[in-house]
């Protein structure tokens, strides 16, 4: 049982009418609930709606008025001190990166962008601010065209390095003369398995909370992909080999081992919240999730969708992950949304594609509250714009068509689900993507989503 002493500002509209609106869980880096775009659509706990230091609903979360911070065990769902990292350099970076991804940056801008991305001090500012702003950006996109939906915030960004103890064990084993094979088999794989299990424990707790609060759809634009997994296992293998650079094949084999186990453990999310539809960002490594099972994006379940990113021409972006375990695509280049302190920025990534699907899922639920997670998922998948070039990239071979999905939801109130979908496919045309505009596939994309390791 948690014992939290807290004070805070109650944010959100009145409780009247909330019961009829869809609830969207934003599991991310925290949300600026005071942002002008979000303040009137903040979920308020109907049973614990004031910061009175009392666990009124007796669920173990004291003053979980607008959600919960599972990292710091607190109702404080954002730390505003990180707003200081927003400066002219950070602003310029995002602006130039946006232009570069749209193929509109000058040679001088591209040179500056690459230089900035290689400067550790500048990169630290960008990544720190990006992590801070990420959840607010996702929240804004999740509310697209849906003034009735409510955002419930789950903060889930780690602050400590969980691998410090494992690194020390590996170093000690090397000093004791253990062979590299023994260290990998007994220590590293065992440590990574325990780390994956820790993921499952936290995800189970998050899912139970989402289920308790009757969250209809939850967005997770986060996770661990190939690049993060490689970064985790490479120094461990290097230690085991007494400083020698490990073979890429050994790194990838161990990275894949870790990712598979993380997915297995994180799948508890779907078991503990059986009525919630989960939307995952596919990841931004530009790799196949069939080969490197990005977590949690590669979890396969009837109530889960993984989303890739396309550019303004409808083509899969160079940074987007893909594969049979990825379900559909949505626009993910230069997407404008809210960031803390009443600012707005254009950001790019599968993180920006996923919440657009989340927004449509919530709208479907509000159009026809009788539709469950299975039906909402079916509508989203069967109303996509089919693109032959995506056939080998995403399982549905298509891109989100929000108008068609919403038409199917409306039709489902008077027809069978299948009939409503077929009618919508006939009546709503495909989105007309601009084939003359293609993103710069060489532009650097700095990622600021933290890998979720506990």
Any overview of this molecule?
This protein has helices at 88-101, 107-117, 120-142, 164-175, 180-212, 226-240, 248-266, 268-272, 350-367, 373-382, 402-411, 417-427, and strands spanning 23-28, 67-69, 150-155, 217-220, 277-281, 304-310, 328-331, 335-339, 343-347, 385-386, 398-399. By secondary structure, the protein is an alpha/beta fold. It has a 7-stranded parallel β-sheet with strand order 2-3-1-4-5-6-7. Strands 8-9 form a two-stranded antiparallel ribbon. The longest helix is centred in the middle third of the chain and has 33 residues, at 180-212. The model is unreliable at 1-8 and 448-454 (pLDDT under 50).
Topology:
Blueprint: E1 23-28, E2 67-69, H1 88-101, H2 107-117, H3 120-142, E3 150-155, H4 164-175, H5 180-212, E4 217-220, H6 226-240, H7 248-266, H8 268-272, E5 277-281, E6 304-310, E7 328-331, E8 335-339, E9 343-347, H9 350-367, H10 373-382, E10 385-386, E11 398-399, H11 402-411, H12 417-427
Helix pairs in contact: 1-2, 3-9, 4-5, 4-6, 5-6, 5-7, 6-7, 9-11, 10-11, 11-12
């Amino acid at each position: 049982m948690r014992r939290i002493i807290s004070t805070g500002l109650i944010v959100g509209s009145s409780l009247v009418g909330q019961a009829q609106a869809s609830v969207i869980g934003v599991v991310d880096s925290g949300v600026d609930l005071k942002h002008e775009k979000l303040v009137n659509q903040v979920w308020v706990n109907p049973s614990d709606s004031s910061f009175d230091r009392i666990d009124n609903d007796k669920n173990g979360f004291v003053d979980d008025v607008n959600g919960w911070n599972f990292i710091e065990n607190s109702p404080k769902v954002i730390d505003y001190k990180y707003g200081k990292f927003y400066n002219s350099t950070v602003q310029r970076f995002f602006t130039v990166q946006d232009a570069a991804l749209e193929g509109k940056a000058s040679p001088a801008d591209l040179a500056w962008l690459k230089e900035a991305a290689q400067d550790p001090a500048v990169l630290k500012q960008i990544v720190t601010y990006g992590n801070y702003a990420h959840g607010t950006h996702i929240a804004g996109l999740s509310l697209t065209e849906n003034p009735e939906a409510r955002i419930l915030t789950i903060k889930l960004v780690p602050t400590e390095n969980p691998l410090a103890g494992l690194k020390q064990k590996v170093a000690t084993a090397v000093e004791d003369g253990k062979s590299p094979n023994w260290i990998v088999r007994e220590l590293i794989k065992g440590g990574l398995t325990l780390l994956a299990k820790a993921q499952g424990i936290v995800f189970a707790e998050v899912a139970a909370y989402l289920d308790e609060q009757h969250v209809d759809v939850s967005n997770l634009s986060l996770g661990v992909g190939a690049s993060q997994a490689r970064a985790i296992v490479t120094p461990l293998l290097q230690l085991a080999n007494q400083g020698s650079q490990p073979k890429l094949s050994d790194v990838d084999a161990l990275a894949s081992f870790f990712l598979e186990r993380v997915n297995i453990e994180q799948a508890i999310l779907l078991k503990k919240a059986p009525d919630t539809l989960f939307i995952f960002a596919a990841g931004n490594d530009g790799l196949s999730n069939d080969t490197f099972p990005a977590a949690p994006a590669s979890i396969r379940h009837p109530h889960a969708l993984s989303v890739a990113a396309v550019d303004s021409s409808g083509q899969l972006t160079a940074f987007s992950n893909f594969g049979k375990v990825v379900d559909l695509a949505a626009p993910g280049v230069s997407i404008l949304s809210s960031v803390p302190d009443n600012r707005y920025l254009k950001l790019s990534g599968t993180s920006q594609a996923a919440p657009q699907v989340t927004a449509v899922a919530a709208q479907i639920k509000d159009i026809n509250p009788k539709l469950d997670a299975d039906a909402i998922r079916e509508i989203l998948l069967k109303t996509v714009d089919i693109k032959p070039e995506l056939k080998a990239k995403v399982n549905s071979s298509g891109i989100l068509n929000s108008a068609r999905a919403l038409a199917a939801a409306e039709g489902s109130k008077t027809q069978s689900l299948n009939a409503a979908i077929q009618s919508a496919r006939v009546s709503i045309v495909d989105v007309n993507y601009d084939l003359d505009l293609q993103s710069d596939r060489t532009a650097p994309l700095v990622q600021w989503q933290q890998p979720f390791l506990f």
